[in-house]
């Protein structure tokens, strides 16, 4: 229950946004998709360049440190040779002096003999960054596999280390270990990478905003075309033109194509209107001209039936068939006249408030009497008001009930249900027939449309009953709908206002 107000607040907040902002953040809009796709490609490109640059910079940094300790190892041997030339220093003193000259704050050097005993070491072993190691022997154990320069990460600090044989005059004096701490350089490198990532993120955001603005400006002519087309009515097809200034050539061509389409639609609409008008006039004139002579013919047929005591059985049957067909034809002509008047706007509606139950009960009784079928009337209240035309509403109910009787088995009852919902009165006419296929439900209210021609010929009717129902219902300010499943039957629902205020 708590989720509904949350969804309603989100929907209300979305509706309160300006149309450009809604278009910009709508995932289904072209503006959003173009901006997101281009910004995504740019973000991927910038991220790839930043990652490659960071990786390359780190490789260069590590390579420079590795090359540095290799050069130092080579120079130690040269220094030892230099100190021994004057015969002033012993071999061990020469090694110690050479190591002392080459060592630094972050650079540690020492030499072990072939038995692993310490021969010489730099004086900076007591500095804080080297105190974590107990002795050069411990360092030698840690860096024992570093014949080639290698990076080590030990106790939160980074080192580059290697070892090699100390050769002087083709004589092996011991094993020289060289280790340099590069923690500070690594931290500076990480800080540089973070700055690069931050700069790339800011650049991506700024580029995305600029892209959003540019795409919105580029698509503005399309939005103008959309707004113009919404304002075009059928009567304005030949008058309205889509004119876009300062738009790309593709959009200008689209506008010209759209204008040509409007001209063709205008011509087709006018031709259709003329054809429909001529058809309406023809149907109205023919219906009016035929109704009078058919009424006279029906009168004569009924008179002969009343006085036909000397008629044979075959003659009586022929008269009954002729009278029935005349009645059906007259009713068809009346329906056509009603539709023609409604199309011309001459169909009068005497709207007033009355009790729906009375009209429904009258229609049900009449249907049971003439069709010899069970028609049930169910009402949630004995007094349901409705604001409508009583005669037109009766015609609506008669057509719906007769339609339900025609298309359902004689053993199955037809039910008319009445209910009231807020400001509307609802009439449900239910049957248990074969039902209507879903793909045809949207067409059953069209004129002369019938689902099954073979069955329509056997049941009678010209396909105007439901069209009259729709015309009369909408003329009284209501709506009609259908809910049907094949094999389960159909339910036609008529919704009408219960008061004049509810029609506003």
Write the layout of secondary structure elements.
Blueprint: H1 3-16, H2 19-25, H3 30-84, H4 91-102, E1 107-112, E2 118-121, H5 136-142, E3 150-154, E4 157-168, E5 171-181, H6 183-230, H7 249-306, H8 313-344, E6 352-355, H9 356-371, E7 375-379, E8 385-388, H10 390-406, E9 414-421, E10 424-431, H11 453-459, H12 465-475, E11 479-485, E12 489-497
Parallel strand pairs: 7-9
Antiparallel strand pairs: 1-2, 1-5, 3-4, 4-5, 6-8, 9-10, 10-12, 11-12
Helix pairs in contact: 3-4, 3-6, 7-8, 8-12, 9-10, 10-12
CATH class of the largest domain: Alpha Beta
Q: What share of the residues lie within helices?
A: 55-70%
CATH superfamily of the largest domain: PAS domain
Order of helices and strands: HHHHEEHEEEHHHEHEEHEEHHEE
What is the C-alpha radius of gyration, as a whole number of Å? Answer: 49 Å
Broad shape:
rod-shaped
Major sheet details: 5 strands, antiparallel
Number of domains: 3
Strand content: 15-25%
Q: Mean pLDDT score, rounded?
A: 76
Taking the alpha carbons of the first and last residues, their distance comes to 32 Å
Treating each run of at least 4 consecutive H or I residues as one helix, how many helices? 12
| Spatial order of the strands forming the largest sheet | 2-1-5-4-3
List keywords for this structure.
504 residues, alpha+beta, Beta-Lactamase, Helix Hairpins, 5-stranded mixed sheet, 12 helices
Walk me through this protein's architecture.
The chain has twelve helices and twelve strands. With 504 residues, the protein is an alpha+beta fold. It has a five-stranded antiparallel β-sheet. The chain has a five-stranded mixed β-sheet with strand order 7-9-10-12-11. The chain has a two-stranded antiparallel ribbon with strand order 6-8. Helix 3 packs antiparallel against helix 4. The protein starts with a helix and ends in a 7-residue tail after the last strand.
């Amino acid at each position: 229950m708590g989720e509904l107000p949350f969804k309603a607040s989100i929907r209300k907040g979305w509706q309160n946004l300006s149309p450009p902002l809604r278009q910009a953040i709508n995932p289904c809009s072209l503006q959003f998709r173009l901006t997101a796709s281009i910004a995504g490609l740019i973000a991927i490109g910038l991220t790839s360049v930043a990652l490659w640059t960071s990786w390359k910079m780190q490789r260069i940094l590590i390579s420079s440190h590795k090359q540095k300790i290799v050069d130092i190892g080579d120079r130690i041997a040269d220094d030892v040779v230099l100190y021994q030339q004057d015969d002033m220093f012993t071999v061990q003193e020469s090694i110690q002096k050479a190591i002392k000259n080459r060592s630094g704050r972050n650079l540690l050097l020492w030499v072990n003999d072939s038995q692993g005993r310490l021969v010489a070491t730099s004086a900076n072993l007591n500095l804080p960054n080297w105190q974590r190691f107990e002795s050069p022997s411990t360092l030698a154990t840690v860096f024992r596999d570093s014949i080639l320069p290698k990076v080590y990460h030990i106790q939160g600090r980074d080192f580059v280390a290697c070892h090699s044989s100390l050769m002087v005059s083709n004589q092996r004096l011991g094993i020289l270990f060289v280790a340099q701490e590069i923690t500070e350089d690594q931290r500076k490198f990480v800080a540089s990478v973070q700055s690069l990532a931050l700069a790339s993120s800011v650049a991506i955001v700024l580029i995305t905003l600029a892209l959003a603005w540019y795409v919105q400006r580029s698509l503005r002519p399309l939005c103008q075309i959309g707004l113009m087309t919404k304002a075009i009515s059928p009567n304005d097809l030949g008058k309205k033109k889509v004119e876009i200034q300062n738009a790309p050539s593709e959009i200008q061509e689209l506008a010209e194509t759209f204008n040509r389409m409007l001209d063709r639609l205008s011509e087709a609409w006018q031709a259709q209107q003329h054809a429909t008008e001529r058809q309406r006039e023809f149907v109205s004139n023919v219906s009016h001209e035929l109704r009078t002579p058919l009424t006279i013919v029906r009168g004569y047929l009924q008179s002969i039936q009343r006085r036909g005591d000397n008629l044979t059985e075959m003659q009586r049957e022929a008269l009954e068939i002729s009278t029935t067909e005349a009645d059906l034809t007259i009713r068809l002509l009346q329906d056509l006249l009603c539709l023609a008047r409604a199309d011309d706007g001459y169909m009068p509606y005497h709207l007033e408030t009355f009790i729906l139950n009375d009209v429904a009960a009258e229609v049900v009784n009449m249907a049971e009497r003439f069709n010899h079928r069970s028609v049930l009337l169910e009402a949630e209240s004995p007094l349901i008001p409705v604001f409508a035309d009583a005669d037109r509403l009766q015609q609506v109910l008669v057509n719906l009930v007769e339609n339900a009787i025609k298309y359902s088995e004689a053993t199955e009852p037809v039910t008319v249900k009445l209910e009231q919902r807020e400001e509307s009165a609802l009439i449900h006419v239910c049957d248990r027939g074969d039902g209507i296929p879903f793909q045809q439900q949207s067409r059953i209210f069209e004129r002369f449309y019938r689902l099954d021609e073979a069955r329509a010929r056997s049941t009678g009717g010209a396909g105007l009953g439901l069209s009259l129902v729709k015309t009369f219902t909408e003329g009284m300010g209501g709506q009609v709908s259908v809910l049907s499943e094949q094999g389960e039957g159909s339910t036609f629902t008529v919704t009408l206002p219960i008061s004049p205020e509810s029609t506003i």
